[in-house]
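stage 2 :: seqdesign
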């Protein structure tokens, strides 16, 4: 029954692709790097790209029209909705900006170029919005800055300099490349390894930053980090192809898996039901495991097996061969930038164990992982690399962003 519903859903998409309004190619951006839906289900989508103009656009999904959010005039590293969807936040260079999502006006510019500024002095590496307290936004600075700053987007002010004690002690600490809130007060961060040690997972209590905890995660830099729905397990992906599973309560590793040698993990995720987790890589494949088959706690079985790299995944979801890479991809059709040759982004539907994957070959896959043959549909949506994918809170829309200057939005019908 589930298979019938999903095929019906995707066939509706395909049959309406040539019709007005069902598949919208929202043009006007360069290389789209990120897309996010309104968290409260309003028909809005924000996208960001690698260069001006049109580096930050706020779309109305019903009309397909966009408001240009002007002010960064540079590459946008990340964007999201905040303050229960009343605002958009974006980070470009070393600045965090807060925008009104109705008028598109800039409400606050946080940070500056002054060395004495409370903001970042180098570009912002990563940004995360606290979904429990959505007025709170955390940003991390690149090497040479190293700050981990918590902002109040409603008031337009710095709420806390989380790692100021570490910096004041002249401690050697890594740059944070990815992060996510585990709960209302707990922040998990994944680092690089440029300072000479292992990449680490950091846990911060934003109400009590001095209670910071850190543990080794990988010999390579961490590319992606996610928390399971129960809020007790962290999954990380690394540049050496390893996947780390960590128990938040024990503050230690459960064990490790691998996507295979020679590949970099590009994305990790848990399904919204918490039963499945996935890891995508530059091999253009996504591996899916079932938590009922792979232990996620310190049981006797885990203690007997110190290495889970050979735990067989439930599925290997393939987009085919890797895309060829080149230094100047604009001059070589069919080539992508280094690191974009595989599966670049993944998102789960909210109400079903269906994974959506976006590939460097410009295609999008939909996979029902409960099926023996999980591929529900494989659609080519971009004529260049697909970089980002988002699923609306009610599963009504799926959107992708690509290197062909397009945001493609699907309207799903169940």
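stage 2 :: out
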């Amino acid at each position: 029954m589930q298979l019938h519903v999903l095929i019906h859903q995707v066939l509706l998409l395909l049959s309406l692709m040539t019709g007005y309004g069902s598949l919208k190619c929202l043009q006007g951006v360069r290389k789209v790097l990120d897309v996010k839906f309104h968290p409260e289900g309003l028909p809005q989508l924000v996208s960001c790209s690698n260069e001006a103009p049109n580096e930050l656009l706020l779309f109305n999904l019903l009309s397909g029209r966009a408001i240009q959010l002007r002010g960064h005039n540079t590459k946008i590293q990340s964007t999201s909705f905040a303050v229960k969807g009343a605002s958009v936040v974006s980070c470009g260079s070393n600045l965090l900006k807060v925008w009104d999502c109705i008028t598109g006006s800039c409400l606050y510019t946080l940070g500056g170029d002054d060395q004495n500024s409370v903001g970042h002095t180098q570009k912002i590496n990563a940004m995360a919005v606290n979904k429990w307290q959505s007025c709170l936004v955390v940003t991390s600075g690149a090497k040479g800055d190293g700050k981990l700053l918590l902002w109040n987007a409603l008031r337009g002010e710095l709420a806390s300099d989380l790692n100021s004690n570490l910096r004041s002690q002249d401690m050697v600490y890594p740059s944070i490349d990815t992060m996510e809130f585990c709960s209302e007060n707990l922040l998990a961060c994944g680092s690089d390894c440029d300072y000479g040690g292992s990449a680490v997972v950091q846990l911060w209590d934003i109400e009590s930053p001095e209670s910071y905890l850190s543990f080794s995660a990988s010999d390579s830099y961490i590319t992606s980090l996610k928390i399971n729905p129960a809020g007790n397990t962290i999954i990380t992906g690394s540049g050496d192809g390893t996947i780390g599973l960590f128990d938040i309560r024990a503050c230690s590793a459960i064990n490790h898996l691998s996507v295979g040698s020679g590949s970099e993990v590009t994305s990790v995720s848990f399904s919204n039901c918490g039963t499945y987790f996935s890891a995508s890589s530059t091999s253009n494949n996504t591996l899916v495991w079932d938590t009922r088959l792979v232990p996620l706690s310190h049981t006797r079985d885990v203690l007997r097996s110190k290495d889970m790299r050979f735990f067989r995944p439930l599925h290997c979801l393939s987009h085919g061969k890797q895309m060829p890479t080149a230094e100047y991809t604009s001059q070589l059709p069919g080539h992508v930038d280094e690191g974009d040759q595989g599966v670049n982004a993944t998102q789960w539907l909210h109400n079903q164990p269906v994974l959506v994957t976006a590939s460097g070959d410009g295609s999008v896959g939909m996979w029902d992982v409960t099926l023996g043959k999980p591929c529900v549909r494989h659609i080519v949506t971009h004529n260049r690399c697909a970089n980002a994918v988002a699923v609306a809170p009610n599963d009504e829309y799926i959107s992708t962003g690509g290197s062909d200057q397009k945001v493609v939005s699907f309207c799903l019908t169940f």
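stage 3 :: structure notes
- The first strand starts at residue 23 and ends at 27.
- The chain has three helices and 32 strands.
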